[in-house]
């Protein structure tokens, strides 16, 4: 049985008005509760702001090994790339020609000593005859001249002997310092020219230096510090730095600033700074890149918040502060670097506020929230600045 269309429409409208009247009589649907958010007090503690710089390691001492006498390379006494100590024998140049020169020099000394002894006795006789008047002054002067000449020849022969002894000693080339040696650059049997041919080189490894460049703005900030900064002095006050290698997330080695250059480079606007690190395990290698973290401020009371508690409002950074009746208020802040896993709040907070640290997307300025209180730990895992 089919009802007329007008009867069906009238029934639907009647049902809708009846439902509306019933809802109006019961006061309407209940509003949703305020959203839940996690809140906490900002972390307030003594901090020192730090700045990172990229640099490279260099050896404190580096020596190119050269021969001090010419000759044919006779033997190599080390293995390439090993560690050597100061005084270790590295190369030997064929010593036979220099030993022959040494024997000749010894013979020349002996001959000069004999001539000097004869000239001495001849002069002594001349002095006796001169006192008795049996010799002329001219003959006496001649014998005295012969004595002085023989003495000078002996001095020259002794000097030549000492030089010949040095030449024989120089045929053994020893390491002037302790460190890692490179490969041999000349093989046995090759002619080596004195003071020219580079045979190898040696680098010291412990301690090791780290050079990096500091921009002008950072340098001025460091220089205004009352504790440390980039000042290096002999009064025992040192500025500690922290080293992070390219394959590390956290710095594990500590060093000290020990040198700041005396002028800024006018072309780059930077100044060269040096830190020194212990390298007992010889792991740090000259030429290796790294990152040093340097204190960029004096200690002060800092206000810290996690990055997820900081939002953006156009071109400014803001935090959501929970006030009376759990109403959310928007507060602009000025942020700084990351320290201990938190972001430094330079301006905008006093540290006594209750801040939304989790659930920012559910909070709205001027609207209430259901806060869940938590406490920020003193330190979080650092992910860099």
Automatic annotation (TrEMBL):
<dbReference type="GO" id="GO:0005886">
    <property type="term" value="C:plasma membrane"/>
</dbReference>
<feature type="domain" description="Multidrug resistance protein MdtA-like beta-barrel">
    <location>
        <begin position="234"/>
        <end position="294"/>
    </location>
</feature>
<keyword id="KW-0732">Signal</keyword>
<dbReference type="InterPro" id="IPR058627">
    <property type="entry name" value="MdtA-like_C"/>
</dbReference>
<protein>
    <submittedName>
        <fullName>Efflux RND transporter periplasmic adaptor subunit</fullName>
    </submittedName>
</protein>
<dbReference type="Pfam" id="PF25876">
    <property type="entry name" value="HH_MFP_RND"/>
</dbReference>
<dbReference type="Pfam" id="PF25917">
    <property type="entry name" value="BSH_RND"/>
</dbReference>
<dbReference type="GO" id="GO:0030313">
    <property type="term" value="C:cell envelope"/>
</dbReference>
<dbReference type="Pfam" id="PF25967">
    <property type="entry name" value="RND-MFP_C"/>
</dbReference>
<feature type="domain" description="Multidrug resistance protein MdtA-like alpha-helical hairpin">
    <location>
        <begin position="102"/>
        <end position="171"/>
    </location>
</feature>
<dbReference type="GO" id="GO:0022857">
    <property type="term" value="F:transmembrane transporter activity"/>
</dbReference>
<dbReference type="Pfam" id="PF25944">
    <property type="entry name" value="Beta-barrel_RND"/>
</dbReference>
<dbReference type="InterPro" id="IPR058626">
    <property type="entry name" value="MdtA-like_b-barrel"/>
</dbReference>
<dbReference type="GO" id="GO:0046677">
    <property type="term" value="P:response to antibiotic"/>
</dbReference>
<dbReference type="InterPro" id="IPR058624">
    <property type="entry name" value="MdtA-like_HH"/>
</dbReference>
<keyword id="KW-0175">Coiled coil</keyword>
<dbReference type="InterPro" id="IPR058625">
    <property type="entry name" value="MdtA-like_BSH"/>
</dbReference>
<feature type="domain" description="Multidrug resistance protein MdtA-like C-terminal permuted SH3">
    <location>
        <begin position="303"/>
        <end position="360"/>
    </location>
</feature>
<feature type="signal peptide">
    <location>
        <begin position="1"/>
        <end position="25"/>
    </location>
</feature>
<comment type="similarity">
    <text>Belongs to the membrane fusion protein (MFP) (TC 8.A.1) family.</text>
</comment>
<feature type="coiled-coil region">
    <location>
        <begin position="147"/>
        <end position="174"/>
    </location>
</feature>
<dbReference type="InterPro" id="IPR006143">
    <property type="entry name" value="RND_pump_MFP"/>
</dbReference>
<feature type="domain" description="Multidrug resistance protein MdtA-like barrel-sandwich hybrid">
    <location>
        <begin position="62"/>
        <end position="197"/>
    </location>
</feature>
């Amino acid at each position: 049985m089919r009802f007329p269309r007008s009867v069906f429409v009238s029934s639907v409208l009647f049902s809708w008005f009846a439902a509306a009247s019933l809802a109006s009589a019961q006061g309407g649907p209940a509003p949703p509760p305020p959203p839940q958010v996690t809140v906490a007090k900002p972390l307030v503690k003594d901090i020192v702001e730090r700045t990172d710089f990229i640099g490279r390691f260099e050896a404190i001492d580096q020596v190119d090994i050269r021969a001090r006498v010419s000759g044919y390379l006779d033997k190599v006494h080390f293995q390439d790339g090993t560690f050597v100590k100061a005084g270790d024998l590295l190369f030997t140049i064929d010593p036979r020609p220099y030993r022959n020169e040494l024997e000749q020099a010894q013979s020349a000394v002996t001959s000069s000593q004999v001539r000097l002894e004869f000239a001495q006795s001849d002069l002594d006789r001349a002095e006796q005859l001169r006192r008795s008047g049996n010799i002329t002054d001219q003959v006496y002067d001649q014998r005295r001249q012969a004595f002085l000449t023989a003495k000078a020849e002996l001095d020259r022969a002794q000097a030549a002997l000492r030089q010949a002894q040095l030449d024989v000693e120089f045929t053994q080339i020893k390491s002037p310092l302790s460190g890692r040696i490179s490969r041999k650059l000349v093989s046995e049997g090759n002619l080596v020219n004195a003071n020219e041919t580079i045979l190898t080189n040696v680098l010291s490894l412990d301690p090791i230096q780290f050079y990096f460049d500091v921009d002008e703005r950072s340098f001025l900030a460091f220089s205004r510090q009352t504790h440390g900064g980039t000042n290096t002095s002999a009064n025992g006050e040192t500025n500690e730095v922290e080293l992070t290698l390219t394959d590390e997330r956290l710095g594990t080695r500590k060093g000290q600033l020990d040198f700041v250059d005396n002028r800024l480079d006018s072309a780059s606007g930077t100044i060269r700074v040096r830190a020194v690190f212990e390298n007992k395990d010889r792991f740090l290698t000259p030429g290796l890149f790294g990152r040093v973290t340097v204190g960029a401020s004096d200690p002060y009371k800092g206000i810290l918040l996690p990055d997820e508690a900081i939002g953006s409002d156009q071109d400014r950074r803001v935090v959501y502060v929970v006030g009376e009746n759990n109403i959310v208020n928007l507060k602009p802040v000025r942020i700084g670097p990351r320290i201990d896993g938190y972001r430094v709040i330079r301006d905008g907070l006093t540290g006594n506020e209750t801040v939304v640290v989790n659930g920012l997307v559910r909070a709205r300025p001027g609207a209430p929230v259901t806060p869940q209180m938590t406490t920020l730990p003193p330190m979080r895992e650092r992910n860099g600045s």
